C-alpha cells in the first residue's frame, strides 16, 4: 500500500507541475500574442496600469468590445470626399494652424464615426481604435495632447505642425488608403 500511495503522490506532483507549467506557458503566449498585436500600445498600457495582468485584461476587453461593433470599410466616394476635406485642412494650416488642427481632429472623428467606431470621449476613442490600428494610436494620443495643450496654454506652430502630421497618420490608416492615395492626401511629396 505504501508503494501505491507513493506512486499516487508522484503522479499528482507530476500533474501539478505540468499544470503549473502549462499555465505559465499560456500566460507567456498570451503576453506575446498581445504584445505582437498591439505593438507599442501594449507597452503603453502596461506602463499606464503599472500591472501587466491588468493591462492584458484591458487589451483583451478592448478587443472584445470592438469586435461587437459594426466596423465597416468606407466606400470609394466617402474616401474621396474625406481625402478632399483632408487636403483642404492641410492647405488651411498655413493661414490658420489652430483651426487646421481643430478641423483635423473633427475629420478623424467623422471618419471614425462613418466606419462605426463610437466617438463619445477621447480615451474610449483611442482605446477602440487601438484594436484595429495599433500602429498609429500613439500618433493620435500625441496629436490630441498637443491640441489640448494648445487650447489651454498655447503651442508653437511647429508643435501644431507635428500634431497635424500625427492626425494624418491615423486619418490615412482609418481611410484605408494606399501609399499613392496617402501621398495625394499629403498634397504631394515631402
Keyphrases for this structure?
190 residues, mainly alpha, 2 domains, elongated, disordered C terminus
Structural overview:
It contains nine helices and no strands. The relative contact order is 0.11. It has two domains: 2-67; 76-185, no CATH class. Helix 1 crosses helix 2 (40-49). The model is unreliable at 178-190 (pLDDT under 50). It has 190 residues and is an all-alpha fold.
The structural class is mainly alpha
Oligomer: single chain
- Report the principal-axis shape: elongated
- Main beta sheet strand tally, sense and closure: none
Strand content: under 5%
Compute the separation of the termini in Å: 82 Å
Task: Count structural domains.
Answer: 2
Radius of gyration: 23 Å
- List unreliable stretches of 5+ residues: 178-190
Structural topology:
Layout: H1 2-38, H2 40-49, H3 52-67, H4 76-93, H5 97-115, H6 122-132, H7 137-153, H8 157-175, H9 179-185
Helix pairs in contact: 1-2, 2-3, 3-6, 4-5, 4-8, 5-7, 5-8, 6-7, 7-8
In short:
The protein is mainly alpha-helical.
Amino acid at each position: 500500500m505504501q508503494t501505491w500511495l507513493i506512486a499516487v503522490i508522484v503522479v499528482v506532483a507530476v500533474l501539478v507541475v505540468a499544470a503549473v507549467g502549462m499555465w505559465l506557458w499560456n500566460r507567456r503566449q498570451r503576453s506575446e500574442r498581445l504584445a505582437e498585436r498591439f505593438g507599442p500600445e501594449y507597452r503603453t498600457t502596461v506602463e499606464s496600469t503599472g500591472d501587466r495582468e491588468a493591462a492584458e485584461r484591458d487589451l483583451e476587453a478592448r478587443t472584445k468590445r470592438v469586435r461587437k461593433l459594426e466596423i465597416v470599410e468606407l466606400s470609394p466616394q466617402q474616401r474621396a470626399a474625406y481625402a478632399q476635406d483632408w487636403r483642404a485642412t492641410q492647405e488651411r494650416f498655413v493661414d490658420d494652424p489652430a483651426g487646421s488642427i481643430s478641423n483635423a481632429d473633427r475629420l478623424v472623428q467623422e471618419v471614425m464615426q462613418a466606419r462605426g467606431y463610437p466617438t463619445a470621449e477621447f480615451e474610449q476613442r483611442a482605446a477602440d481604435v487601438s484594436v484595429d490600428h495599433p500602429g498609429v494610436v500613439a500618433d493620435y494620443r500625441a496629436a490630441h495632447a498637443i491640441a489640448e495643450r494648445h487650447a489651454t496654454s498655447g503651442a508653437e506652430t511647429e508643435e501644431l505642425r507635428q500634431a497635424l502630421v500625427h492626425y494624418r497618420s491615423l486619418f490615412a490608416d482609418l481611410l484605408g488608403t494606399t501609399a499613392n492615395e496617402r501621398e495625394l492626401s499629403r498634397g504631394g511629396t515631402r
